[in-house]
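Cont'd.
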Amino acid sequence: MQVLLNTGSTIDEGRLAKGGNKYSEDYKKECAVCWMCAADYATLGSPEKVAVTSRDGKHTVAVYPKVTEVMRSGQVFIPRSIWANVVVEPDTFSTGSPRYKGSPVIIEPTDEEVLSAEEVVLKLYMGGE
Amino acid sequence: MVYKNIICPVCGAACDDVQVDLDTINRTIDVQNACKMGNAKFQEVVSSHRIVRPTIRENGKVKDVSWDEALEMAADILVKSRRPLFFLGSETSCEAQEVGLHIAEYLGGVADSNATICHGPTVMGIQESGMVGATAGQTKNRADMIVYWGVNALESMPRHMSRYGVFPRGYWTKRGRFDRTLITVDPRRTPTATASDLHLQINPNTDYELLSALFTILNGKEPHTSIEDITGIPISVMKQMVEMMKESNYVGIFVGLGVSSSYGKHRNIEMALNFVKEMNNYTKCNIGALRGHCNVAGFNQLASYLYGYPFGVDFMKGYPRYNPGETTTVDLLREKDVDAAFVMSADLVNHIPADSAKYLTEIPMICLDIAPCPSTTAADVVLPGVIDAMECDGTFYRLDNVPVHFEPFTDSPFPETKSNEETLKMLFEKVKAKKEA
Ligand code: SF4
């Protein structure tokens, strides 16, 4: 399903990031999460995990879904973090700032493991070093 | 011992009323008045995960080294690089950023900071059309209407509403929240939107269109009906918003990344700024950015007065150049246009898109930080950071570009350095010695 990705702060994302706890389980539980509305979640088949893929298909990240009333259909939210940024569009429209808000992404059910922040760096960015 | 009026070095609010009780014997710290985010950072003074020793990566293995060895290797990387990137993050002082800018100039590299991935487009919008701004005290004392556009203030700058925006009792707003109307424009129903009197749940990427329609209404014209489908907001609600603003005595608008990071970028900001100018024909109205990172405004000020440009300053040609989209961090890394990086007080790997982050982990990287994070994991040299406003003094610029001098309540835990400024000065000496050898 193609949706628009919004990313941004949550208070616990801020608390954990500023407290130097990016490698904690709590940080993963707070940030490796894709917020969506109940209708979109049902359309996906109510999966336990979802894969979020960038529009060009180059980058995918597995996260946990979270159903919430604050989202509208066709829009998802991932707290500002390494998981969200894997799929944020790197194009800056000649401003230097990527599209943290409103990047088109594809979401689908997955069985892939949800990686920790450290594993994302090591496996997705550093090629498994 | 209890210390009062400590400045919080976490977000652009730079709250100056924090009270700290530091017990150096039991290594505990009790913090009053700070929000959850601020409190978490104050705990770093005594935390067990603090980076306390410099490390280097050798043949793929990370090992502890002395400060001198780490600085030697860092200088080696920078001197050998043909075009190093200096990402001078915002969680440190202007004094440290200044040394970083000078090293970048000396080596013909590029200097950038968090603004580039934050309110860079806002700064560009201001360059296009100028800004009707004000200090935070003006909003506190005068504003009877606050508009949060594309920002969830309660979670990104948790005390903005209580210190500057909505709840404080000011000279002409004696009843605090009761004297103010609050409007939020956001595609999500955030806690800030829930606390508002009016929430415009706009469709993503349509800020420019909504601002244009409000501008049209303000000019006494009727926007085309297609605007309702595009933005998801009925024209009647737009009219209501414009009327509410016109009827107020003083409107304070705060924009967030929702405006500057979505489709339209600096053009959204330009339109917002023009709308504010026009609104001043009816009532007093000003606009400001909620700057999430602590001293992100400081880098813009500093780079502007030293080199003429607010971010993305490229010294490759021997004089400063600024061309967002070419000389800015995400673009330089995506296009593989730099060959080494120095990242200070910012977790760059965490905050940039995959294509750029992946390349950053491939090139030699030096990282100065206080706690383990994706950037330190990928770095070849890690230098421990000193926490500004807690362990050393210096200057920050607040969200409204007011400079704030901060004093520490304890000392740097490292005998080798008193501050990040001093660490950078030591690095600069080594760079010069190698370059001129
Ligand atoms: S609002 Fe910002 S400056 Fe104030 S206490 Fe919270 S994190 Fe610190």
